[in-house]
Specification:
The chain is an alpha/beta fold. Helix content is about 55%, strand content about 15%. Strand 1 (about 1-5), helix 1 (about 10-20) and strand 2 (about 25-35) form a beta-alpha-beta unit. The radius of gyration is 17 Å and the shape is globular.
């Protein structure tokens, strides 16, 4: 079973999400929260696999809660909910380690599929969408981030940088393997080492880092 915590200040939205996800035989709603301040104790109590997090909430917002949650040891995956396609807060949540974002008008079947994919360790946001988001949202500090990203990527071996670049281009493990003449397990091992070396959570963050380094 995939354990899910719902976080939204609107009780009707939580009820709708619960109804949709609860209808899937492999998903269990283990708890709900109406404010970001409730997230840490709820996560500690229920140990969800995925937190479905509203961005805009009174009190502690979803961005702050995401940043705090992803900074803890062995955190659950976070998927942020938003009504905006291009949003500075969404971009900050992705930089903080969210596995992706979903629009609140997402079809029910797509929502269930997204939760399953995130629980399986797959980001639900392609690097192409990430680049479009960055292009449309100006969150400042681009020059500083470029220098920092280039410095961070220097921690990788030449082969690991090649893999990181391919991840940033949105290529799958199989595509990377064909391009770099590696087996898929070898690609996976390289990606795991990249995440560990750079202290990143997922491939979305690798894509963001590559984008930043290219200015």
């Amino acid at each position: 079973m995939i354990r899910v915590l719902l976080v939204d200040d609107d009780a009707l939205v939580r009820a709708g999400l619960s109804m949709i996800l609860g209808g899937a035989g492999d998903i269990e709603i283990v708890g709900e929260a109406g404010d970001g301040a409730e997230v840490p104790p709820k996560v500690a109590e229920h140990r969800p696999d995925v937190v479905l997090m509203d961005i805009r909430m009174p009190g502690v917002d979803g961005l702050t809660a995401t940043e705090a949650l992803r900074a803890t040891k062995s955190p659950p995956e976070v998927v942020v909910l938003t009504t905006f396609h291009a949003d500075a807060q969404v971009l900050r949540a992705l930089r903080a380690g969210a596995a992706g974002f979903l629009l609140k008008d997402i079809p029910p079947g797509d929502l269930v599929d997204a939760i399953r994919r995130v629980a399986a360790g797959e980001p639900i946001l392609s690097p192409t969408v990430t680049r479009q988001l960055i292009t449309h949202v100006s969150d400042g500090g681009a020059g500083d981030r470029t220098e920092r990203a280039r410095s961070v990527l220097q921690r990788l071996s030449e082969r690991e940088r090649e893999v990181a670049l391919a991840v940033g281009q949105g290529k799958s493990n199989a595509e990377i393997g064909r391009e770099l003449y590696m087996s898929v397990p070898t690609v996976k091992a390289h990606v795991s080492r990249i995440l560990t070396k750079l202290d990143l959570n997922n491939r979305v963050q690798v894509a963001l880092l590559v984008y930043d380094a290219n200015g």
